[in-house]
Specification:
Elements: E1 10-15, H1 19-23, H2 26-35, E2 40-46, E3 61-65, H3 74-90, E4 95-98, H4 103-111, E5 116-120, E6 135-137, H5 145-154, H6 171-183, E7 192-196, H7 208-220, E8 224-229, H8 233-246, E9 254-258, H9 263-271, E10 275-279, H10 282-289, E11 294-297, H11 303-306, E12 334-336, E13 339-342, H12 363-366, H13 370-380
Parallel strand pairs: 1-2, 1-4, 2-3, 4-5, 5-6, 7-8, 7-10, 8-9, 10-11, 11-13
Antiparallel strand pairs: 12-13
Helix pairs in contact: 2-5, 6-9, 7-8, 7-13, 9-10
Length: about 375
């Protein structure tokens, strides 16, 4: 459905979620720039997620919602929220695009004073929330999140044929990883595998001993393995435990960068790698965005929503329709172009829960065995 939007000079796109969620909004910015080439486009994201958008030439400004205000007293937090909303309104936005769907983003959209306020139709949230928006799109929960994001605007005639999820890497960060590879005497003949075994949600993580077994297998066959994790204490500890289980087998080929990299540097590592192997996480999405083949382990998450996105999606353009999804099944092992997701085909998947019965342990992940993972990795990188 097409719609006439008049006098659009300033646009605010709101995505108050996590790093991977923010990254997968990229085609929305492209569609807006193609439709309104002279408009200034601003992104509003949570603190700690902004790096995945930095360098994107389709975005003129990035505003940051400071998540640390949650630790303030009620009065201090209220005051900060009011000042923030006043600042948003002072920007004079003509259009807001709410890709979050939460109550806070709805309030920000309304408080902006924008003439056009686009969002998803939903029964969730505060009473009267639907009246906050001027245009509500019909959500389709069967679509990949990249396409769901785009639907918020495409249902009103703002779209693009280029569905690339861009991730921009500064030259300094490319030099960073090149210097590390040089330090370890890595040669061009050796395959590089980037392994990021952790997630901020530990129920998405595989058994330590299983991950260590796959790493050993890769090292024993002469592959260079770079292991990373976020700087979070729990993630670093988990990654270090995995490395302790690997032992000294071919240790000269193992590079430990756990907790030592930025978001951009993670992208630079994946960019020079022949394969990314890990769990459902933001680094998985970053690896896919830089064009590295991904083998990912999924537990309770929906692959049809969150599977690694292939930027050669234009090759599949003839398939794209209102009902198309690169991962058409509810669960099980699925491949989309150069990416493969390993997941059990159990009826309970996806449950979206933090482990079975709140245990923080996902049996569907624990049931995946190293030998079947290795067989799939062999198809991507044989060494």
């Amino acid at each position: 459905m097409s719609h006439t939007f008049k006098d659009i000079h300033r646009i605010l796109v709101i995505k108050l979620r996590h790093i991977g969620d923010v990254l997968l909004t990229a085609p929305v910015f492209r569609a807006l720039k193609e439709k309104f080439p002279d408009a200034q486009i601003t992104a509003l994201v949570n603190s700690g997620t902004e790096d995945v958008l930095k360098g994107n030439t389709l975005i003129d400004e990035i505003l940051i919602m400071d998540r640390s205000i949650k630790r303030l007293s009620i009065i201090q937090r209220y005051a900060k929220e009011i000042f923030f909303l006043k600042d948003i309104r002072a920007n004079g936005f003509d259009m807001t695009i709410d890709l979050t769907g939460g109550d806070r983003a709805a309030v920000i959209s309304f408080a902006s004073g924008a003439r056009y306020r686009l969002g998803w139709k939903s029964d969730k949230g505060f009473i009267g929330k639907k009246y906050v928006y001027t245009h509500l799109s019909e959500p389709d929960a069967n679509k990949h999140i990249v396409l769901q994001n785009l639907d918020v605007i495409s249902q009103f005639g703002i779209t693009t044929e280029d569905l690339t999820v861009n991730f921009y890497i500064p030259d300094d960060d490319r030099i960073f990883i090149k210097d590390i590879l040089r330090k370890y005497n890595a040669d061009k003949e050796t395959n590089i595998v980037h392994i990021h075994p952790t997630s901020r949600w530990l129920f998405k993580c595989w058994k330590d001993e299983y991950m260590a077994e796959v790493i050993r297998w890769l090292l024993d066959r002469g592959n260079r393995v770079i292991v990373t994790s976020s700087p979070d204490k729990k993630e670093v500890e988990k990654a270090k435990k995995i490395l302790s289980l690997v032992g000294n087998s071919r240790s000269s080929l193992l590079i430990d960068l756990c907790g030592k990299t930025t978001i951009k540097q993670l992208g630079a590592i994946s960019e020079v790698s022949n394969l990314f192997f890990g769990v459902d996480s933001a680094p998985m999405h970053i690896a896919a965005a830089v064009g590295t083949p991904v083998v990912a382990l999924f537990g309770p998450s929906g692959t049809f929503h969150w599977g690694p996105w292939d930027n050669k999606i234009s090759n599949f353009k003839f398939q794209i329709s209102n009902y198309w999804n690169p991962y058409p099944n509810r669960n099980g092992i699925q491949t989309f172009a150069i990416h493969t997701v390993i997941q059990r085909d159990w009826d309970c998947i996806p449950c979206g829960k933090d482990g079975c019965n709140g245990s923080k342990i996902s049996k569907c992940l624990d049931d995946i065995r190293p030998d079947e993972v290795i067989e799939i990795i062999k198809n991507v990188i044989i060494k």
